[in-house]
Amino acid sequence: MAAYIIRRILLMVPTILGIMALSFLLVQFAPGGPIERIVAQLSGTEISATARIGGSGSGDFAQQNIGGGADAALNSKYRGARGLDPEFIKQLEVQFGFDKPWYERFGKMIWNYSRFQFGTSYFRDVKVLDLIGEKLPVSISLGLWTTLLTYLISIPLGIRKAMLDGSRFDLWTSAVIIVGYAIPSFLFAVFLIVLFAGGSFFDVFPLRGLTSDNWSDLSWPMRIVDYLWHICLPVTALVIGSFATTTLLTKNSFLDEIKKQYVMTARAKGLSERQVLYGHVFRNAMLIVIAGFPGAFVGAFFTGSILIETIFSLDGLGLLSYESIVNRDYPVVFATLYIFGLMGLVMTLVSDLTYTWVDPRIDFETREV
């Protein structure tokens, strides 16, 4: 097993390199960019975007160069640069590193990322690693609680539905699951806000934030209560929208295993239904459920929480990544992509190791990676 783990870790290197290379190349052909964004803001008389460019007084530099050098700017490769001094555009290119060839920029990025040096955000004037660390607690809270509660609900419910297949319990729970699957999580979030967060009915839960303003002044027991109070609605919205797939997957997996010959043989030997279910069926049926864990975990961290973070004013990694893409803040975009990609690869390895824990008969050591 040790050799298999080492091979998988070594395989992560070309995988993450390929992900970053493909993303970097796509960005080169995508319209827009940080310089175009600044040019657009300057054209709209918004000068704040240039506050950190060239140090102090850069805003005055930008103002002085609007309207000058128009003839030279006609041939500029940046859309909307008409009326800006070409020297100012060159200064922007140097500031963002676009004065160097793409392969040199990519090589420098990979070298820095291998040492977890992600640089500074283009528009926030904060180190990317500090920015991610600031947003990480929110995403950890949403991701861990959503994944944990989803599996704690889905697995027992799916097993119960498989054992009572075709019963009234199975039909009613299937109806609830279909509704939960059909309605997006953000609609559940809006419904919960209207119902429980000071909308048209009750005012029981807070509307925004992960903790109260006076959280640091509370005792430790009250801090835990305050945290759970704030996280209740967003986690509930995410769980309702995500437990349906895992439940049906668990049910169908158990139904497939129950119909196999070895289950009939175990019953013929006089084993109880509980012994058959948890001694033989469980470890085989759970393999496919475990295989979906990495995707569910990473999805809860990022894709599943973007709208939820926005609705409940939770400033996490999902919202940060989305805003960075919109604003063309490339250091933040590539850093979050690198971290999420690396996290997905690690979780896949953890999933494989969990296979061997659930079913010791599986031996990855004898398989080719």
Mind explaining what this structure looks like?
With 369 residues, this protein is mainly alpha-helical. The protein is globular, with a radius of gyration of 26 Å. About 8% of the residues have low confidence. The chain is built from 16 helices and no strands. Helix 10 packs across helix 12, helix 11 packs antiparallel against helix 12 and helix 13 runs antiparallel to helix 16.
Can I get a quick summary?
The protein has helices spanning 2-29, 34-43, 58-65, 70-73, 86-96, 102-114, 128-163, 168-182, 185-196, 220-258, 261-268, 273-291, 293-301, 306-311, 317-327, 330-358. By secondary structure, the chain is mainly alpha-helical. α12 (273-291) packs antiparallel against α16 (330-358).
Q: What topology does this entry show?
A:
Elements lengths: L1 H28 L4 H10 L14 H8 L4 H4 L12 H11 L5 H13 L13 H36 L4 H15 L2 H12 L23 H39 L2 H8 L4 H19 L1 H9 L4 H6 L5 H11 L2 H29 L11
Helix pairs in contact: 1-16, 7-10, 7-13, 8-10, 9-10, 10-12, 11-12, 12-16, 13-16, 15-16
Main attributes of the structure:
369 residues, mainly alpha, 16 helices
Helix content: 55-70%
Question: What is the average per-residue confidence, as pLDDT, rounded to a whole number?
Answer: 78
Secondary structure category: mainly alpha
- Main β-sheet description: none
* Low-pLDDT stretches: 45-75
Number of extended strands: 0
Order of helices and strands: HHHHHHHHHHHHHHHH
Characterize the overall form: globular
Rg computed from alpha carbons, rounded to a whole number of angstroms: 26 Å
Oligomer: single chain
